[in-house]
User: Fold these one by one.
Assistant:
Number 1:
Amino acid sequence: MQQLKDWSDANPGHFPVFITMEVKGSADQLKADTSLTEPEALIPKTFDQLDSALRAGLGDDKLITPDLVRGDAATLNEAVIANGWPKLSEAAGRFAFILDDGGAKRDLYMQGHPSLKGRVLFARAEPGIPEAAALILNNPEDEQIPELVKQGYLVRTRADANTIEARANDYTHFEKACQSGAQIITTDYYQPSQFFGSPYHIVFADSTYVRVNPLFK
């Protein structure tokens, strides 16, 4: 957090930075390998501590939170459908965190926080429920993405996964992701890999990592 804050302070007015987080609290692997250390069970206090650490590390003035996006709307979902996300000028210099976990972990994070009131992270929620604002759709060919973006949701998709595209120097999924209008396209290769003889790396045509969304040109 200190490194992020120092960088942000040194680059005032930078584009908003989106960070996805996965919480590791599953004991499933223990069934296959009993030598592994059993992880602590996730409880609401775990997530409270995570939120506190993010606030303490960056400060509220550097965060895009569900409360900020919801404003005076009844629910977070209603806010993004009616008003969209904050304008770029309002989001400049800030960070937004998205919980990339579904199921029980996601539900535990939302527990006691309707519309994510008081939370720091945006949850991986299904469209239409009160907590929905940021969606994670890993398949860039998912035909829902353009419509969901036009409705007001923030969508994260992927250009590559499991080293497949990098090994084959295949930009098909990246091109689909660009066409989809998803606001966040993640990649494991913002620079070429050192492990295979492939030049594969992800950058927009003007050699930058930010562009105007093609759905709204």
Number 2:
Amino acid sequence: MRRSHRKFTEEEIDAENVRLILRAALMSPTSKGQRGWQFVVVDNKADLEKLADAKDLGSQFLKGAPLAVVVLGDPLQNDCWVEDGSLAAIAMQYQAEDLGLGSCWIQMRGRGLSDGTSADTVIRGILNIPENLSCLCIIAFGHKADERKPQNEERLKWENVHIGKYDKL
């Protein structure tokens, strides 16, 4: 099973693996087959460092990633842009895992800096993204620099699964 990785080696991801990761996103299901998402692939170290500073917390590890994919959508074009982008993002993460690579989702939608600047505004400025597009997340990718233990099966919350009807009152 996939686990989030926030520590990466400095080894680059080869072009064929990047293509396979993006192919997974482009093949992901979308509402009404709209395929309205947009993806920006970032491997420039200076831009990765700037993107890591687009919000106050939870994104600094992006500075150590060799590659990131920014997941975008147009809220006025597609009322399911968040869902469509989420499906594409997890498809990329599963593909990366299958290739032996690590990844981690960085939430950007609804996030920002303590001065009130939205992450969207910061990201637009760095990557020249048009105003109609909003950033859902950034997925960091790289060769794993750490080993993560599998999920603890004993901690799975099976009580949150309801069969037939919701059985908690």
Number 3:
Amino acid sequence: MILKTVNSISSYQYNTDSIVTIGTFDGLHLGHQKIISKVVQTAKAENLESIVLSFFPHPRMVLQQDNSIKLLNTIKEKENQLEELGIDHLIIHPFSHDFSQLSAEDFVKTVLVDQLHCKKIVIGHDHRFGKNRAANIDDLIAFGKKYQFDVEQITAEEINEIAISSTKIRTALLEGNIEITNKYLGYNYNFSGKVVKGKQLGRTIGFPTANIAIDEAYKLLPKNGVYIVSAIIDSKKHFGMMNIGTRPTINGENQTVEVFIIDFNQEIYDTLITIEVLQFIRNEQKFDSLDALKKQIENDKKYTLDYIKNSF
């Protein structure tokens, strides 16, 4: 199943009846996956197009001018996951102040009914929509009767589970608790970036690293520290260690993401690679000398090799 993505509601040009779910679905964790599975199964059973309607930027970035929001998924990651889960269409509509002024009934009539040909919508019981978020699930059910579509509610328990999962994932990631992060996600937390030239300090101590530049400033990274990771390069998986931090031993100031890939010596500048975070090793620390740093990295490597041997 190939996912079709469009960047506005008006760009969706299919005339087939559909089932729609609306949400940020940040992280697409296990709770989200249950909802998406429900949508996909219903779409197949009732011969409907399955649609995820999402928004970017995050509404809080626009309405509350909150640029501090960090997300678990980039748009590209969300696309890849929704495709794997079997969704037909992803609509990422630009969220703007003007769009937020659309009345609830206008949203239902012009977006859900006229544009998306919605015959069923799967939504949380606490979902609010329309100007000033004035309409609720009861209003949506009433609109459904008027415009002939069904509303399937996600239960309070499921919504609570999703909220708890999202909060736990963010908290765990910011605490370096990768075990909890990956457990709630149902997959290894990951990010992608291009390999760029760094100061090449690692080479001088026998641990050359790939410096990763991540384009999406809104992507949430784990807390500063040293991690066991896998690096996916040209569809092949390699194990290694990652340091996120400011490199205090050499009085660094800016945060960098550096990956030492074990038993790997290819030239990969400008290559897009994906890093999967497997386990936290230790906090970043300042060493008295490069020799002391090298000794610690050798210990980290031994720990990493033991972990890989026992886990894979």
